[in-house]
Fold Ribonuclease D.
Amino acid sequence: MSETSQPRGDVPAEEEPRPTPLLEPREGVPPVVASADGLERVIAAFAAGDGPVAVDAERASGYRYGQRAYLVQLRRAGAGTALIDPIGCPDLSGLAAALDDVEMVLHAASQDLPCLAELGLVPRRIFDTELAGRLLGHPRVGLGSMVETVLGFTLEKGHSAADWSTRPLPPEWLRYAALDVELLVELRDALHAELTAAGKLEWAAQEFAAVLATPPKPPRPDPWRRTSGIHRVRNRRGLAVVREVWEARDRIAVERDLSPGRVLQDTAIVELALNQPKSPAELQELSTMRGRGARRYLSVWLRAVNRARGLTERELPESSLPGDGPPPAHRWAERDPEAARRLTAARGVVAALADEHTMPSENLVQPDLIRRLAWSPPEPVDAERVATTLALLGAREWQVELVAVPLARALLRVETKGDV
């Protein structure tokens, strides 16, 4: 430290200990298990191990169609680390049965549970280290950040966006994958102690149970409406082009097992909707049609545009789908000024309580619950009815206990002022 940056009083500032790079798994990188015999050995070893099991999965998002797992990593005391190839071992239900009531430790569990369930690995109890970090108010809750701030080690994160469908997997990728579960149980133990000290352990238990109880998401109606940049398409004919091209792209992506964006980018779909080319020459003039993937299927895209152009008015998609909840909050002031005031008051209550309990507002109560409560509050408003409404909307018991009374008071204040 230079003299100009020395703290006042010439007292050297204490340097925080630097985190230790975690470069190699303790027992080395295990071989990838890709056979039934190898899987049986893993099952036996992990069934004989002790304590929670660290679990992680690597997908090939951005490369392959869907979100299936291409590598599953496990670690347990007494068993070490296992790397399982789901292509060679597509059924992990035997492993799930052997670990029937063992707690599984995951980071951001909601991301990995669906692809693990496809393999038959469905935990009965979990500890989510990311969710625990949020409840504790950690400013950064990525795995690398939490391992560094809580345990004092740094993890390499250079391969998180790799194409994990690659075979064989490079040795450095396997090392990275093994290190992702190397300290996950130790992180769990440290966060468990923090939750206990903060009086939040029961809150975490309810949150983990809610993650496990969340049913698989049903298919979205009109998934093509999530095309990035679709807001630029301002008429129903253009939306029909988006729909036809999106569906054509999706069929190709499924057939070739490619991420849809590698077949045709969303920006190209939107440009087709805005320009609606009528000939191959017009199509090729578009800037987004110059990539290899786009050029390969030029005739497919042109036929899709022509199909949309030939639809009758009745066949065109509606400008938007009717929602099952309140309208967007930015429209409330115009449509229902009192509801807008209720929402402002409710959000203020939640923000204050979240600050008091050192956690993000969205983890104290989901924003959608607050919007629904403010748009359509119970009549008459009181703490008991607010609590019942929140519970019916999916709020956990600990959340209801914290927010029902202050929210009822805030809604009543708005109602009283409106009657004056």
The longest helix spans residues 397-419.
